[in-house]
Design brief:
- It is a single chain.
- The chain is α+β, with helices and mostly antiparallel strands.
- The strands form 4 sheets. It has a 6-stranded mixed sheet with strand order 4-3-2-1-5-6. Strands 7, 8, 9, 10 and 17 form a 5-stranded mixed sheet that branches.
- The protein starts with a helix and ends with a strand.
């Protein structure tokens, strides 16, 4: 735990402290921010309060008294529920306004890990509870220079594998050889393993109407064949098989033929223009030093799609934070599924992935945008036209 950094951020935010809580491993963010290795099963509640100034203090059950031994400060023991409430009162006696992994109206689900009853216990002590969402960004979503380099290297490998997958499809369809979505998925997973990449789930490989299923998973048996004249969506995400590595996450479109039908080309042109509008907005705001919030990026990207009369075909937010988890805990580009007011801060990365989902096909383009101190850049190859595989 970087106590000095946590307390500095608390002081900047005008907070009296940050209360961490867990029971049965509900809040992985608490362990990561505190640098706390879980000690077996967490069957009893623990609390750890980091004040804006002074020494932290914990509250632990006598059945699991060593749960917070790795962290500095005194630990108050409890066994009975009355002792728990008295200990919590002692823990927070000098505080008035604190942060917790709580999100009003669950606006940021990634941070809403503390149950309502626990928040109510803190309210009952007369404290104001605010969301830790912006603090979590600082300690969980920001990258180190080493993580940026690992992301860029993962991107080079994933982009190469995506090209290889398209070549594999081209050769099979040209020769009339049998190939289905699951076969392409297996090809990608094999190349990930051979290239030192890991992922939390296999890639999305969707042909035609399956490309209009946002999180389509090709079945092992009965997956759709891929043949000439088919539209194909390929969504790949992976990271280096190294400690602290971060993900690279892209989506590309291909057509198994020489001439892409106009309906598909037009739909893809719209999402590309929407994507580029989002990239421009972020780059201009970062260069000007202007605070930009996640919902604004979604508004710009989706606004272009709506201006083209295609708003009804949007199904999900514009983008998500990217980190050690492919869907990270930082600001999402979202004013659709949620209203994400968190600022886009330096040394974070997120996707911009506008899409259109029609009855017989879907199109999506996805890039990763890394935000530095005074510049924002796309970290991999950028698709401008549907790839033609013939």
């Amino acid at each position: 735990m970087n106590l000095e950094a946590i307390q500095s951020e608390l002081q900047k935010a005008g907070l009296d402290g940050w209360l961490f809580f867990d029971h049965h491993g509900r809040d992985p963010l608490a362990y990561r921010v505190l640098g706390l290795p879980p000690l077996g099963h967490v069957t009893r509640r623990w609390y750890y309060f980091v004040p804006a100034c002074g020494e932290p203090c914990g509250l632990v059950h006598q059945v699991e008294p060593h749960m917070l031994d790795a962290l500095p400060g005194a630990k108050i023991p409890y066994a009975r529920w009355q002792e728990l409430e008295a200990g919590l009162r002692q823990l927070l006696q000098r505080a008035k306004k604190i942060a917790m992994q709580y999100s009003p109206r669950c606006a940021v689900p990634y941070v809403a890990n503390v149950d309502a009853g626990t928040v109510e216990c803190v309210w009952a002590l007369g404290l104001e509870v605010v969301s830790s969402a912006e603090l979590i960004q600082v300690f969980e979503a920001t990258w180190t220079p080493a993580q940026l380099e690992m992301h860029l290297e993962a991107g080079r490998r994933v982009d190469r594998i995506r090209r290889e997958a398209f070549d594999h499809i081209r050769q099979a369809t040209r020769a009339g050889q049998p190939l289905d979505e699951h076969g392409v998925q297996r090809f990608v997973m094999r190349r990930f393993a051979e290239s030192g990449l890991v992922t939390d789930a296999p890639p999305i490989v969707g042909a035609n109407a399956n490309a209009a299923d946002s999180h389509y998973a090709p079945p092992e048996t009965g997956s759709a064949p891929i043949r000439r004249g088919d539209m194909l969506l390929l969504d790949l995400w992976a990271k280096l098989d190294e400690p602290e590595a971060v993900f690279y996450d892209i989506t590309w479109m291909a057509y198994c033929g020489e001439e892409v039908p106009e309906r598909m080309r037009e739909a893809f042109r719209i999402v590309v223009a929407a994507r580029d509008a989002g990239i421009r907005l972020v780059q201009e705001a970062v260069a000007a030093g202007r605070t930009l919030r996640g919902f604004e990026v979604d508004d710009a990207v989706r606004g272009h799609i709506e201006s083209c009369g295609m708003g009804a075909l949007v199904r999900h937010r514009t983008g998500h934070n990217i980190g050690r988890d492919v869907h990270g805990a930082g600001a999402n580009m979202d004013n659709f599924e949620t209203h994400d007011e968190r600022p886009v801060i330096p040394w974070t990365c997120f996707s911009i992935e506008p899409s259109l989902y029609l009855p017989d096909f879907g199109v999506r383009t996805e890039i990763n945008l890394f935000v530095g101190e005074r510049e924002a850049r796309v970290t991999g190859e950028v698709q401008t036209e549907i790839a033609r595989l013939y």
